[in-house]
Amino acid sequence: MTLRLPHLPGLLPFLLPALLTGGGVALPLVYLVLRALEADPLALREILLRPKNLELLWNTLALLLGVLLLTTLLALPLAFLTTRTDLKGKRLLALLLALPLALPGYVGAFVLLAATGPGGVLPLPRLEGYWGALLVLSFITYPYLFLSLRAAFLGLDPSLEEAARSLGQTPLQAFFKVTLPQLLPALLSGHLLVGLHVLGEFGTVSLLKYETFSYAIYLQYNAAFDRVYAAWLALFLLLLTGGLLLLEGLLLRRLALARTGKGSSRQAKPVRLGPWAPLAYLLALAPVLLGLALPFYALFHLASRFPREGLGGLYEALFHSALAAFPAALLAVGMALPLAYLGVRYPSFAASFLERLAYLGYAIPPLAFALAWIFFSLRSLPFLYGSLALLVLVLAFHLLAETLGPIRSALRQVPRRLEEAARTLGETPTRAFFRVTFPLLWRGVAAGGALAFMGAVKELPITLLLAPMGYSTLSTRVFGYTQEAMFAEAAPFALLIALLSAAFVGVLLWSERRF
Amino acid sequence: MKRLFLTLAAFSALGALAQTLTVYSGRGQSLVEPLVKGFEAETGLRVQVRYGTDAQILAALQEEGNRSPADVLWLNTSGALGQAAAKGLLRPLGESLLGKPLGFVPGSKAWVPVTMRLRVLAYNPNKVKAEELPQSLLDLPRFAREKGLRVGWTPTYSSFQDMVAGILALHGEAKAREWLLAMKALAPKAYPSNPAMLDAIRAGEIDLGSTNHYYVVRFRRAGYNLGLHHFKEGDVGNLALVTGAGILKTSKNLAAATRFLTYLLSPKAQQYFVGNIGEYPLVKGVVLDPNLLPLEEALAKSPRLDFEKLPLEQALRLLRELGIL
Amino acid sequence: MERAPLLELQGIRKRFGGLEVLKGVDLRVYPGEILALLGPSGCGKTTLLRVIAGLEAPDAGRVLLQGQDVTLLPPERRGVGFVFQDYALFPHLSALGNVAFGLKGKDRLQRAQKALERVGMTLFQNRKPHELSGGQQQRIALARALAPGPKLVLLDEPFSSLDAGLRAATREEVRKVLKETGTTALLVTHDQEEALSFADRLGVMRGGELLQVGTPEEVYLRPRTPFVAQFLGRTNLLPGEGKGGYAETCLGPVPLAEPAFGPLLLSLRPEALRLAPPGEGPLGEVVAREFKGHDLTYRVRLLGPVDREVLVQESPGAPYRVGDRVGLRVVGEGVALEGHPSKAPVGAD
């Protein structure tokens, strides 16, 4: 269906929020351009035209490709194992596998570093440079892909695979020829999140001494107190991100994947693993160990080296984190729904532009994002400044992209015909959406919401700068302690972040049960 | 959703009604909070704090412009404070405040130093004898080369960059370049943070590295045997790094802000800095740790410089040019 | 039929990219009737249904329901039921939930149950769609579309995914339900037998145009174009010369249903011909014999100046075999078709 004038009134409930959301995300872009224009041309030339930038570009791309490859090799088989096989305890396994998401990157990489190498608690060589960054980033980001693929596996129509089998394909051939193409939207949206993470990540790469664009931005803000040149580098980074988005959009355009058969699908029969089960466990063990157990073990080990001084404010920080992250996740989902709906159901330049904008918002360095909102909110909504409402709003804008992927791929698996059927039964587009599409989407909604929630709990610069005064959350407390190198005191807060997120991953996996 | 928003906005507006002092802090919450509590108890004033890194705080202040709610700016580095002064964010302070610290009062008179850290050389006492160690930071590369010692450094850390700026200010660009190149020739291991580097010395991964004194103090307090070496008096390797605080031009609570700075320079608060994080106080009458030098001696170690005018940008450009950053 | 039409289409045009799918369709559907749109796949019939339902907006033309222009009205405000080809049952709702979906008010469940009862699905009301067979899903889809009491129900190939045995029976049931409830229905199909047996009237579509509308008998017996003649069962297309009440053809004079003059193309159904012993009428040779139980179709090549094959329908007991020489007898009427005979397709079938 193309977007036409007669449709507009019915679609307003989608269009209006979509436009507002797009505007909210675009605001920081405007800010970056404003700042960039302040640059002194001579100094700018020095920053932008230095040969080092080429090296940074190459490093960034090499890391991006490596991480995408490694996360796919991890997430695809793991998502399959935990959805489509008879593996025992696959639900628990899925929970564990999604948990590395709960560990803030800045903590994870730090403790992993401290724990490895000579004298470290772990008998491993110190992770450094490209391979170190590749490994750490992959183990931090693969859950995005894992969750996205899981949702897609569960939404697949098994009859397609069966059809391929009946046409003489082996299970493996059927998987590659039929199932994999169906998984592509989920794969792409997962890749997009992972990619954006890699592009925007500076904590890990700086710790591992691997220089990328985001690292250069980080240095510029933190070491040189320079907002102007950092804005230029950020715009560079956005250009890269824009390229990534364009690529994803081009690939996605060729996929039209709503189920075409009967209006409902069955659950696939689980694949029997038999003697392969131990191997499956082994495969699942690696990321659990490296992404979860190891950092935590190292964290506690490191913590135990320093004397501890009380656990003040643990509950308060927990409450504050939840109070900001929960509404932010809800709001992000609420903003993602109309965007994804318009993008999938009424594919047009405008709709996909808005959708892409959300991803750009995610790729803007969070510090720049926070500064932009300080700038604009004080000038236009001063009463909101320093309020929890503003923090929630900005977190939602920033994390919107995390919710968009799962919702979008879920939406692609709901046949449009169901909405049309509801329309002919007397429902407006909005009501049809809520009565038919939404109930079928909620797995994607839950996945997206959980991702945003965890993102919000971990988030740091935005929370630091926009939270109400004296509003300390788990992540700001972890920051506050690690800033003074007090790891022992930071540990319980970091652990609580992980536990809170774990609870959410648990809810998410529980919600995957079929209706 | 809209209703939730309004409720939240109203909720937070209520909090702002009570007259409070607003502090923007680049220093960590774990350090600041007990001091703030002490101040509140003593004065009956309410204090709210926004935390961040120096850079974040500075950037936020600039974006807020004259609408900023902040009264007091309290930062980790004199470089950042100097930037704040240069950008006209700070209000000149009165002599009664500026007269309190024993030294390091900046030329701008826009902020007061609160505590001092010294750059020192940390080393593995099992590998290096104290009496062999060089008298100047500038001799460190030669010493390490001759002894075959493994060196670490923290090029991304602000104090290290301050120290490079110190070399530039005291010895000129040629000397600074020479030193950096000589260091680079040793293939030093770069660490993201000082605790990581000290842990590497402890573990035997490297033998020595220039760091801030309180990191060594903290490792020693935790029972680890790390060597702490001061270079000769006035050497750039002993560069003092000053933390400090100022009052923002936007402040509407001048009296309370002044009281807060006065409190930070009171013996009680200064004792806290020594005891809690091992920094040097800047007022008399504070009991020092056995890990620290006597105050007079410590003050004499650092070269005399206008810390606000450290050529930080030049240092960064040089580090970038040499491919260290 | 001088009653006011329930649905009227005026010059409906629709283009998808470079392809014009509907080229100006006019149609009237009268209250209470079942009208079938028949055409090969790709002829635009499904698009026409979607335009009527409001799921597609036409590029030009008007849709009138009970005399009111609804062209710009969204689907939910048209009161038109739709049974989708794949049924589009809501997978998260039970059979009852599906049927009750379009109903409002306190008694919606009772009314939904009544609708289920009508299609004989009361026993299955709590099943989810994936627990139902194709035929059962079909009935739920119909019940769901009919439950809100629409003025008009549109059915898009509703029987195509049922197996042959079930199809005839279901068709009968659906027709009964539609007639009982007095619902006006517009059905789209590519199956001529289905169209002929199910509909009160039918329309034949081709390439985005509606070629002919009429009762099954009218369209079958008086096709206006070669396509219509051929699409609704088998026929012999013969060029001839109109002479008023009859036409001169290669089979000799053939009586015409309506008088015509000059060169023309004639549709002569196989049942309008009979075989006879050689000597009676033009001579031919049997080239194929198709026995279908209730009747028997011969393919006969004419042995004369014109090389042509014709189809002849005989009673099952006809004695002729392949290779036999036979005479041909015209026992029915031919229909003169529109268009010039020279443009007519060659071949008999």
Key terms for this structure?
heterotrimer; B: 325 residues; alpha/beta; D-Maltodextrin-Binding Protein, domain 2; 2 domains; ten-stranded mixed beta sheet; 13 helices; C: 349 residues; alpha+beta; Rossmann fold; OB fold (Dihydrolipoamide Acetyltransferase, E2P); six-stranded mixed beta sheet; five-stranded antiparallel beta sheet; elongated; disordered C terminus
Structure write-up:
Chain B: Keywords: Iron, Metal-binding, Signal. Chain B: It comes from Thermus arciformis. The complex is a heterotrimer of chains A (515), B (325) and C (349). Chain A is an all-alpha fold. Chain A has 21 helices and no strands. Mean pLDDT of chain A is 79; it is low at 256-265. Chain B has 325 residues and is of the alpha/beta class. In chain B, strands 1, 2, 3, 4, 5, 6, 7, 8, 9 and 10 form a 10-stranded mixed sheet that branches. In chain B, α7 (158-185) runs parallel beside α13. Chain C is an alpha+beta fold and 349 residues long. Chain C has helices spanning 45-53, 95-100, 108-118, 134-146, 164-180, 192-198, 216-221, 226-231; strands at residues 7-16, 19-29, 34-38, 60-65, 68-69, 80-83, 152-156, 184-189, 201-206, 209-214, 236-249, 252-268, 273-276, 283-291, 296-302, 309-314, 325-330, 335-337. Chains in contact: A-B, A-C. The interface between A and B is large, with 63 and 65 residues.
What is the fold's blueprint, element by element?
The complex is a heterotrimer of chains A (515), B (325) and C (349).
Chain A: H1 8-36, H2 41-48, H3 52-84, H4 90-98, H5 105-115, H6 129-155, H7 158-166, H8 171-200, H9 203-207, H10 213-224, H11 227-253, H12 277-304, H13 314-345, H14 349-363, H15 366-380, H16 388-412, H17 416-424, H18 429-458, H19 461-466, H20 474-483, H21 487-510
Helix pairs in contact in A: 1-11, 1-13, 1-14, 1-15, 3-4, 3-6, 3-8, 4-21, 5-12, 6-8, 6-16, 6-18, 7-8, 8-11, 8-16, 10-11, 11-14, 12-21, 13-14, 13-16, 13-18, 13-21, 14-16, 16-18, 17-18, 18-21, 20-21
Chain B: H1 2-17, E1 20-25, H2 29-43, E2 46-51, H3 54-64, E3 72-75, H4 78-86, E4 90-91, H5 95-98, E5 111-123, H6 140-147, E6 151-153, H7 158-185, E7 189-190, H8 194-203, E8 208-212, H9 213-221, E9 227-229, E10 240-248, H10 254-264, H11 267-277, H12 295-301, H13 312-321
Parallel strand pairs in B: 1-2, 1-3, 6-7, 6-8
Antiparallel strand pairs in B: 3-10, 4-10, 5-8, 5-9, 5-10
Helix pairs in contact in B: 7-13
Chain C: E1 7-16, E2 19-29, E3 34-38, H1 45-53, E4 60-65, E5 68-69, E6 80-83, H2 95-100, H3 108-118, H4 134-146, E7 152-156, H5 164-180, E8 184-189, H6 192-198, E9 201-206, E10 209-214, H7 216-221, H8 226-231, E11 236-249, E12 252-268, E13 273-276, E14 283-291, E15 296-302, E16 309-314, E17 325-330, E18 335-337
Helix pairs in contact in C: 3-4
Organism (chain C): Thermus arciformis
InterPro entries (chain C): AAA+_ATPase, ABC_SmlMolc_Importer, ABC_transporter-like_ATP-bd, ABC_transporter-like_CS, ABC_transpr_FbpC, Mo/tungstate-bd_C_term_dom, P-loop_NTPase, Transp-assoc_OB_typ2
GO molecular function, one term (chain C): ABC-type ferric iron transporter activity
